[in-house]
Amino acid sequence: MSELLLIRHGETAWSRDGRHTSWTDKPLTERGEREAEGLRPWLEGRDIGLVLVSPMARAARTAELAGLKDVRTEPDLREWDYGGYEGITTAEIQRSRPGWFLFDDGVVPGPDGHPGESPGQVGARADRVLARIAPRLEDRAGGDVVLVAHAHFLRVLTARRLGLPPSAGALFRLDTGTVSRIGTEHGRPALVAWNGRVGTGAGAAGAR
């Protein structure tokens, strides 16, 4: 089977500051652009058959700087809708909700058009994406599938790909400008490399 490559977009001012960012489309910082460009040498060595990108500009820009071609926009790759917690840090939320944890507790409603999502709703979106790419992953000659998106969504998608509940996304920390790989072992999905940049474990493991 082909591998599933997960890329989190490069740094933005809000990701740098720990602010929950879903529909607010902050541009990449200079560091974020360097992170995205740093993915290019590693990705150039892969046989890539399909690239799907979140509709947000920060993801599209990351894909561009990483040198990915024939990119398709996939609406279901958008970030977790944080509702009323958009732009707010975890520490700020916990002042009024001690012990609050996104993967367990979800969010409160936000402005019109942004009611927020529960972990289960994000998991359902991830399942839709996985169902769409399943034929490509099963085609050994079709090349790898690349998803360029956002931290919390990709963490949930990873959990679902591995047969875990959406809340298990909490187990997979994902930094900006990184690439992770999900392959198979004995026909079952398995994590191959995680949260890597060129020159780290994931980059070194990229060669087949």
Gyration radius, rounded = 16 Å
The 3D shape can be described as globular
Strand content: 15-25%
Strand order of the largest sheet: 3-2-4-1-5-6
If you average the pLDDT, what whole number results?
A: 94
SSE order, one letter for each helix or strand: EHHHEHEHHHEHEEH
| Share of helix, binned | 25-40%
Low-confidence stretches: 199-208
Helical stretch tally: 9
- Which class of secondary structure composition applies to the elements? alpha/beta
How far apart the termini lie comes to: 13 Å
Main beta-sheet strand count, sense and barrel state: 6 strands, mixed
- Tell me how many strands there are: 6
Structure description:
This protein has 208 residues and is α/β, with parallel strands linked by helices. The chain has helices at 13-16, 30-38, 40-43, 57-65, 90-96, 102-105, 119-138, 151-161, 201-204, and strands spanning 4-8, 48-53, 71-73, 144-149, 179-185, 188-196. Strands 3-2-4-1-5-6 form a six-stranded mixed beta sheet, with helices on both faces. A hairpin with a 2-residue loop joins β5 (179-185) and β6. The chain starts with a strand and ends with a helix.
What's the layout of helices and strands?
Layout: E1 4-8, H1 13-16, H2 30-38, H3 40-43, E2 48-53, H4 57-65, E3 71-73, H5 90-96, H6 102-105, H7 119-138, E4 144-149, H8 151-161, E5 179-185, E6 188-196, H9 201-204
Parallel strand pairs: 1-4, 2-3, 2-4
Antiparallel strand pairs: 1-5, 5-6
Helix pairs in contact: 2-4, 7-8
Q: Would you kindly provide a brief summary of this structure?
A:
This protein has 208 residues and is α/β, with parallel strands linked by helices.
